Amino acid sequence: MLEKTGAPMNNTPSLPKQPFLEQVSVRELRGIGPQQAKKLSKMGFRTLQDLLFHLPIRYVDKTKISPIGGLQPFTSAVIEGVIKASDVVFGRRRSLVCRLQDDSGIISLRFFHFNRAQQEQLASGVAIRCFGEIRRGTTGAELYHPEYRVIDSQNPPPVEATLTPIYSISEGITQVRMRALCHQALERLRTGGLRELLPRASHQPYSLSEALQLLHQPPVDAPLNLLAAGEHPAQQRLALEELLAHHLSLLRLRRQIQQHPATQLAFYPDQEKRLLAQLPFALTAAQYRVGTEIYTDINQTVPMLRLVQGDVGSGKTVVAALAAIQTIANGYQAALMAPTEILSEQHRINFEGWFRPLGIRVAWLTGKIKGKARNVQLEAIASGEAKMVIGTHALFQDGVEFNSLALTIVDEQHRFGVHQRLAFRRKGHIASDGQNAMSDLPHQLIMTATPIPRTLAMSAYADLDCSIIDELPPGREPVETLVLSNVRRNDIVNRVRQACIAGRQAYWVCTLIEESDVLEAQAAEVTASELQLLIPELSIGLVHGRLKAREKIDVMAQFKAGNIHLLVATTVIEVGVDVPNASLMIIENAERLGLSQLHQLRGRVGRGDQQSHCVLLYSPPLSSVGSERLKIMRETNDGFKIAEKDLQLRGPGEVLGTRQTGDMVLRIADLQRDGHLLPEIKETAHHIMEQHPETVTALIERWLGDSDQYAQA
Ligand code: ADP
Ligand code: MG
């Protein structure tokens, strides 16, 4: 628990004029000229702090000399002895073999690459010390290519005093050089230069300097198992600080936004009733609860920042409509942004169906609506005649002026990424207030179908309040999933034929490894023609990202109307598309897609009341991870379980979507490993915000630097 008082630790000796290491260039290190500095900078090492934050990936123990007689295979050891024989051996590969003896035994050193100088140096009678891994070779225990140095056996040099760090290195720098640079940086660190930014109240066993010192040069008795697992308190200390910085950055952003006033929107129960009366179903309890949470938020004078998570098919669109109708009842505009044209069109159709009978005009704007049609939409938006505005990100480009925007809704947030989400927020801001920085900001609602594992949600969305629609509408049959080798493709084609003849509709999804629209579109075209040949009696449609918006929309409308039996598609249909009568989906090359993406795709079926099926086709052979992943898809329909598993198998970047990989670039922390720190991080972050606001910027700059991605917007 944190004490609510206490100043930040300041155990850095306060040497006057001591520059901070984040400002000291690597140029100042011995042996680094302008050329090398440039090279280092390319590798991401501009300052001494950069070097210090580059932690070793593992350690080796060179602190004691082991007796040769006691060596165990597959361990590494330092040994010392006298060369008894040295011969070039011509086996399958030519090698230099030296027999090295000490008081306890004898062992062979084997070099496959050697030059004449080495051969002469490693002569009989010479004393050497070497380090390497013990293998079982043809002569018994052997060391292949050990590191070695010739020594004076009367006067041997001291052994290493600490464990030896091994760094990840890129081309252009050697391990030895890297070690020497870090060594110099540590020397500088000992005289101060890294501010301690964690509050004393966080009770860390190590200060920042101590932690870095320990991790670059662990003492002989340091627990190697903890270090290897990344669970040493010194590593955890750094991971905590890094995650804290990310968290603070988002919290700060939230504060900045919430310093602005927002329009307080009153609740009109009759408007809610009128909307609900239009629907052919009753809200689920979860939809109702989330709706109420939103009403409470928009009834405040600070902007709402709320994330609604709900598995595919949980009915988020209606919840958005609930929020919109209240905004409109108050006399303001609401805008809904979708990531694709297809999805925005679908929303337009839904909202027109619901709102037009209530006398509310819906405007629709996407990048592909041009010319006169565009002007008509722009005018309706600017005049305030259209109270409900739907579109793609084109909505928030220059030239789009709202009349009285009080609510923005971002659908399928995972497709946008944090950057775009923030840019959108800002656009809304400019659009609504021109130059005046302190005028009203719209309330913001963000909806995502990618169930985000809790740990990730807390860090990537720390700036948002979170609501979860944790219930599917009643009567949904879970999708039955099959995993089949594409060797059985013909069986599947027959199955599709039968299903469609029986009045069902189906999706056939084509995927490619490379994210190339063009290639993917081609693959889909080929598949569509091929299927049409195989099943001439069906009407087959095709959608892919290269079609014109109008064409896509027409095909979707035909599919929805039931005029198309089988829709061949690329992953463009991944998000949002809702055709309840479609109850069969085939996904080709399913092994290439992420679990969350598969889950999204699969969510396109199972929306009606008949039993739906999803067939995951793979090209054999399937790797063991690949088969484990597809097995998960077969076993569960629970998006949260799938997301957790995806996080385990592939890491956070993948789970949040490629577009967001850049958002959580972590140097030291690992969300999977360090997720358990998040509750503490949350608490510490609030403590720092309240008690030590002056350290917030320093922390963010230290860990996120110029790239404080969140602050850009
Ligand atoms: P998602 O959360 O994936 O965006 P949608 O909002 O597209 O889900 O809703 C999926 C389908 O479920 C739509 O056809 C919608 O009309 C329907 N639906 C939404 N809420 C309910 C409900 N409470 N009962 C029955 N059907 C519902
Ligand atoms: Mg949706």
Overview of the molecule:
By secondary structure, the chain is of the alpha/beta class. It has four domains: about 20-60 and about 165-230, no CATH class; about 65-160, OB fold (Dihydrolipoamide Acetyltransferase, E2P), CATH 2.40.50; about 270-470, P-loop containing nucleotide triphosphate hydrolases (Rossmann fold), CATH 3.40.50; about 480-635, P-loop containing nucleotide triphosphate hydrolases (Rossmann fold). Helix content is about 40%, strand content about 20%. The chain has 24 helices and 21 strands. The strands form four sheets. The protein has a seven-stranded parallel beta sheet, with helices on both faces. β13 (about 405-410), α13 (about 415-435) and β14 form a beta-alpha-beta unit. α7 (about 235-260) crosses α23 and α19 packs antiparallel against α20 (about 640-650). The longest helix is centred in the middle third of the chain and has 26 residues, at about 235-260. The protein is globular, with a radius of gyration of 32 Å. The chain starts with about 35 loop residues before the first helix and ends in a 9-residue tail after the last helix. Mean pLDDT is about 85; it is low at about 1-15, about 425-435 and about 655-665. Bound molecules: adenosine-5'-diphosphate (ADP) and magnesium ion. Magnesium ion binds near residues 316, 317, 411 and 576.
